[in-house]
Amino acid sequence: MPAPTTASAAAPVNPRSRVLVASLIGTTIEFYDFYIYATAAVLVFPSLFFPGSDPTTALLSSFAVFGAAMVARPIGAVFFGHLGDRLGRKKTLVVSLLTMGVATFLIGVLPTYAQAGWVATALLVVMRLAQGFALGGEWSGAALVATENAPRGKRALYGTFPQLGAPLGFIIGNGLFLVIGALLPSTAGADPTQPSDAFVDWGWRIPFLFSAVMVAIGLWVRSRLVESAVFAKTRESGRVRKLPLATVVRGHWRQLVLGTFIMLATYVLFYLMTTFSLSYGRTAKDAAVPGLGYSYTTFVLMMIFGVLFFAVFTLVSGPLADRYGRRTTLLWITAAIVVFGLVWVPLIGLGTLGVVLWLVLGFTLMGMTFGPMGALLPELFPTSVRYTGSGISYNVSSILGAAVAPFIAVALWDAGDGSPWLVGVYLSAMAVLTLTALLLGKETKDVSLDDGETADVADAVPGDTPAPAPR
């Protein structure tokens, strides 16, 4: 093996604390932005941007715009993956975070349908697509920052830190909505399942505007990063590909497909436990499609309690995946998701205690299945196409899982006459597909992120020559 170059040996190294904070803070902000949209999509967007429809149709329209962002995510994965595999992880992460922050802030100043008609709805769609485009490049870059800088034997643990941004973003976003709701209470005699007039008029905008503060902090943290030694070595040796998308599609298509379906159950569970459950939990029991009838404040507090388990078990999953392997850990967890989908209606039928147990179990499984993905998906691909490959798998799965999950769930909820048993069956069926993908895949625990480079030249497609090494 050739000795490392002087440049590589002298290259600055990211302190472990900086790696963990930088990978965590960006995904926290990104998920915060996504969660506040999801919450607003349930609480106020149906009436503000889709008036004139019956409540179910307006909610489905709002969820359709929510899902539209998932369609933009693979496009963002290709765009930011190209930048990340060509120019480096740091610059790309800064651009993706800035794009997300600007789009979220602008949602907070949009006119409503009553003020601008269909133009308001169109602008909401555009901003939502921009959010999805940005998130398409965020996750894979954050996961690479964590895993490419991880010490030996702790890659899955480090990979859980960008994943931890999901529960933290949820708690911050929904906690802020709760504070605003408490400061803007409904008038006496108002429906407790509905937000106050002041919240609908202007209160919902505050979380979107506050995103600018969080983005500024995130940009400062990420600006202090240096490139990982793994990527720096690839760039210095001239193995950076001019067309990483072509290389990954032609040379690593099997990993793309397996990675996409390995993420499927995670995405479906994720959005059922957040977006759908919020709608189901706060819909009145005497509605046309009955729900659980909790007030918004009560149910969100119950959800936040469940999300605490999401956070804890995201971190717990890392050491387990490092010790027993990513594939073995996920096989057991995905099998548990299959069972969970079949028993959640009996749990809900037990009353408030059963609803809390449903949320706790669902979010616990969410943490256990989401945590190892931060290491597994990047480990499927060599360094020169890792940003592109892991990003495409992660975000194409968002279309198959997250984009349609809330929409399908509402339709199945309606078809079940108010009972979500069909929603649970849907979750179980998607988990079976993930089990199949895991069984067809291989364990990546002992894969060396450097060793993957030997495959780059062999897997390169005609015309995709290495980009010139930097001078």
From TrEMBL:
GO cellular component, one term: plasma membrane
Superkingdom classification of source: Bacteria
Domain Major facilitator superfamily (MFS) profile positions: 19-445
Keywords, sorted A to Z: Cell membrane, Membrane, Transmembrane, Transmembrane helix, Transport
TM regions (residue ranges): 58-80, 92-110, 116-135, 156-184, 204-221, 256-274, 294-317, 329-349, 355-380, 392-413, 419-440
SUPFAM superfamilies to which the protein is assigned, alphabetical: MFS general substrate transporter
Subcellular localization(s) per the UniProt record: Cell membrane
Membrane association type: Multi-pass membrane protein
Pfam families named among the record's database cross-references: MFS_1
Chief location: membrane
Matching InterPro entries: MFS, MFS_dom, MFS_trans_sf, Sugar_transporter_CS
Chain residue ranges for the region called Disordered: 450-471
Residue runs in coiled coils: none
Protein name in UniProt: MFS transporter
